[in-house]
Amino acid sequence: xxxxxxxxxxxxxxxxxxxxxxxxxxxxxxxxxxxxxxxxxxxxxxxxxxxxxxxxxxxxxxxxxxxxxxxxxxxxxxxxxxxxxxxxxxxxxxxxxxxxxxxxxxxxxxxxxxxxxxxxxxxxxxxxxxxxxxxxxxxxxxxxxxxxxxxxxxxxxxxxxxxxxxxxxxxxxxxxxxxxxxxxxxxxxxxxxxxxxxxxxxxxxxxxxxxxxxxxxxxxxxxxxxxxxxxxxxxxxxxxxxxxxxxxxxxxxxxxxxxxxxxxxxxxxxxxxxxxxxxxxxxxxxxxxxxxxxxxxxxxxxxxxxxxxxxxxxxxxxxxx
Length: 321
Description:
Elements: E1 2-5, H1 10-21, E2 26-30, E3 45-48, H2 54-63, E4 68-71, H3 78-83, H4 85-105, E5 110-116, H5 140-157, E6 162-168, E7 170-172, H6 189-197, E8 204-207, E9 219-224, H7 225-241, E10 246-250, E11 255-257, H8 258-269, E12 275-278, H9 293-299, H10 307-320
Parallel strand pairs: 1-2, 1-4, 2-3, 4-5, 5-6, 6-10, 7-9, 8-12
Antiparallel strand pairs: 9-11
Helix pairs in contact: 1-7, 2-4, 4-5, 6-8, 8-10
């Protein structure tokens, strides 16, 4: 049986759906602080609990025979992490470490950790970022995600467990039928653009249009949540069949500028998007692009969906809700 922490959330619920449809038995552990029970499309078993509460974790491992853990539960707002670093340390760092330890004591041998490109901080290159790049996060969010990686690696070295650490880049999109997707209240740029297209906001302010990029706006790597979910299913099969562990990026490997994203939203929604430009924010990253050579090789995985697919599916969900 597979335990998915944060399985009622945006990315977690897509992973749960993909696992169930691949024939895996799944149990979800979530505190429902941001996720919703209705995101579980196949009535998967839900245990309400918090990764920061060891008793909650012990209860789920005592009551269910779990052999693999997929850890998605986390706080993910980089700006919030700067104003409340202790909260991020408690959830992302200490909560993750506690999960690894309690799961291992319960006999779990396989772990998949949803990490983040934030562990790289400001990339030292405009080329695709490789997994061997310098790890120098610039905010507590990135620091605590990296701490989660390190505690998992350390524990694995002391036990018979193996792991897949997957560093997500900019995840977007929604389930094609529009049943699950990103929160309409999310501060993700796509959701803000949709709110302008829907007439809820009059404009969007882009911080910085003088970067050293082809059109002056930042370059990002957008990857569809469905592609992410398919990679996780492959990672499950890999870990169960192999003794080895690995760390890999999960992105599309394709560069998209913020202006390209805005134009794609205009194309899909048929609405004009009024854009205003403001000054850069301190620490803004001009280029963030994943090298996905490693994950292609290890998991035989290839992203199938484009930026247009991401925006079409995300808008479909937004428009329905």
